[in-house]
Amino acid sequence: GSGGAKPPPPPAGSRASGSPRRVVVQASTGELLRCLGDFLISWFRSVDRSLLLQGWQDQGFITPANLVFVYLLCREALRGEDIGSQAELQAAFLTCLYLAYSYMGNEISYPLKPFLVEGDKGRFWERCLGIIQRLSAKMLRINADPHYFTQLFQDLKSEGEGGDGSKHWTISLDR
Fold this sequence. Notes:
This protein is mostly helical. It contains 5 helices and 2 strands.
């Protein structure tokens, strides 16, 4: 045991006490935005698929014009200070979708089930009324004013073009 020999390294998967393992995660902003978009789009597609399968609509709701309308609602209604968890984000996003389907869709009414992810229907209806009170003028304007629609369309496109994709985020996580 003498002579300055080093002890064997710890087995793989273990770490010496007191020395946190450092993990570096890298991704471009564009990659992360696509991932976030895929995450939200999965909620949107789930609702659309459910309504198609249940016969509430004959064709998919996801069209360019409807996406611009959904963008308007989400941009104006989904504020960070109002959302504290993934469940709250999903509930608020699905409320925006419900209003978009109700306003732009082919049916007079839709079932609540695909849009309702919380047990309290009262909170859902309160969010609906709050959004309608704040945004009804803009909701009407998007169909009446082609210049307003075009501006929103361009705003949405600009959201997706937010740079040349060369920006990278590096996050260090101590575990």
